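Supplementary Text 2. Reproducibility record for the structural model of the 155-residue chain.

All settings were left at their defaults, and a single model was retained for analysis rather than an ensemble. We include the record here because the model underlies the residue-level annotations in Supplementary Table 4.
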Amino acid sequence: MRPRFVVGPGDRHFLPGLVRLAKWRIGIGDGRQASTIVDVDDYAEIILRLAARIARAAEPRHEAFNVGYVEPIRFAELAELVGLRPRLRIPIRAPALARLRRMGGQRLGALAAQLELIGLSHHLDVTALEKVVGRDLVARDPRAAFARALARTMR
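Retained model, structure tokens:
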């Protein structure tokens, strides 16, 4: 199972990090970067469907699946949903991130990894997963899933 971002109860990093960026009014990248997300409840349903498939299989197979929704969500859409009105935009380029990593140190490496995750596109092809678990799960709207997760988090 290869999810990119799992949103909903228990998300201690992605959604709370976006909320902090909104509070600090910092935009990352140009807003067009695409990400694959999945709601934690949909992720659980995917796991259940895969487990049922394994239980029915005459001989289990090892397969890797990208997990998320077919349609990506753009950073600008995420920013709008959390109310981010950036006063400062931080452009993200892969060569700059590589230089940051080469500078060494645990903190700079962690910062480079975080900036790469939200500042560059990370949209996954979930076609293989769709064939196994069905279109109804992977065709859900990522914006609606994120909005639900945000509402549950902000309670």
